[in-house]
């Protein structure tokens, strides 16, 4: 089942109209309709708003089997690529029922800079290749391959790839996003 179909199925399961989801998510009815019909790819922020309006975790939209112990084989990693975002996200561990950490492989395109964000939880990142500018609160850090950082996610933070080559990060955080 594709993303839009999963959203529509959950909305109908709850007996909600597009208008109700629009009001709860802050997204327009027209946009939600386009998402449901696979005519628009939502950003992570939009998908998070939809998930909250539908009473589910973001992971609801990324189908995967759930186990207590998870082994992820190379080439079998679920990937999330949203058209509006210049990066790719690969799950490194799938979804265990009682697991708290979310390990992700993130590939940032050259010259990408995110908007500052804050949320519950904690983040750890390790630069595998390329360069990363990390802004945490008022502090700015320039990281290269082999460098790591950890910070509370409640502090506003942003990422940037100042280089002309892709940057690859190992990101581990809580709470789980997918």
Question: What this model shows, in words?
Answer:
The structure is a single chain. The protein is an alpha+beta fold and 178 residues long. The chain has 2 domains: 59 residues, lambda repressor-like DNA-binding domains (434 Repressor (Amino-terminal Domain), Orthogonal Bundle), CATH 1.10.260.40; 109 residues, Sandwich (Jelly Rolls), CATH 2.60.120.10. The protein is 21% helix and 31% strand. It has 4 helices and 11 strands. The chain has a 6-stranded antiparallel beta sheet with strand order 2-3-5-11-6-9, with no helix packed on it. A hairpin with a 2-residue loop joins strand 7 and strand 8. Helix 2 crosses helix 4.
Topology readout:
Blueprint (H helix, E strand, L loop, with lengths): L2 H11 L4 H8 L3 H8 L7 H10 L12 E2 L11 E3 L5 E5 L3 E2 L5 E7 L13 E8 L1 E6 L2 E6 L3 E5 L4 E4 L6 E8 L4
Parallel strand pairs: 1-4
Antiparallel strand pairs: 2-3, 3-5, 5-11, 6-9, 6-11, 7-8, 7-10
Helix pairs in contact: 2-4
Rg is 17 Å
Order of helices and strands: HHHHEEEEEEEEEEE
Please bin the fraction of helical residues: 10-25%
CATH class of the largest domain: Mainly Beta
Per CATH, the superfamily of the largest domain is Jelly Rolls
Sequence stretches where pLDDT stays below 50 over 5 or more residues: none
Give the percentage of residues in beta strands: 25-35%
Would you give the CATH topology of the largest domain? Jelly Rolls
- Distance linking N and C termini: 16 Å
The total number of structural domains is 2
Number of strands: 11
The average pLDDT score comes to: 83
Main sheet: strand order: 2-3-5-11-6-9
């Amino acid at each position: 089942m594709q993303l839009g179909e999963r959203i529509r199925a959950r909305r109908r399961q709850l007996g909600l109209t597009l208008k109700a989801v629009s009001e709860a998510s802050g997204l327009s009815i027209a946009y939600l309709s386009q998402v449901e019909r696979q005519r628009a790819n939502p950003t992570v922020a939009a998908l998070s708003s939809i998930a909250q309006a539908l009473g589910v975790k973001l992971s609801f939209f990324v189908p995967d089997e759930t186990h207590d112990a998870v082994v992820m084989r190379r080439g079998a990693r679920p990937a999330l690529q949203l058209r509006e975002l210049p990066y790719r996200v690969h799950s490194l561990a799938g979804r265990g029922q009682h697991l708290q950490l979310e390990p992700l492989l993130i590939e940032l395109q050259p010259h990408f800079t995110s908007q500052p964000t804050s949320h519950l939880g904690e983040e750890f990142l390790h630069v595998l290749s390329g360069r990363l500018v990390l802004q945490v609160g008022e502090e700015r850090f320039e990281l290269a391959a082999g460098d790591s950082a950890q910070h509370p996610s409640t502090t506003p933070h942003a990422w940037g790839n100042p280089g002309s080559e892709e940057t690859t990060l190992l990101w581990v955080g809580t709470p789980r996003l997918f």
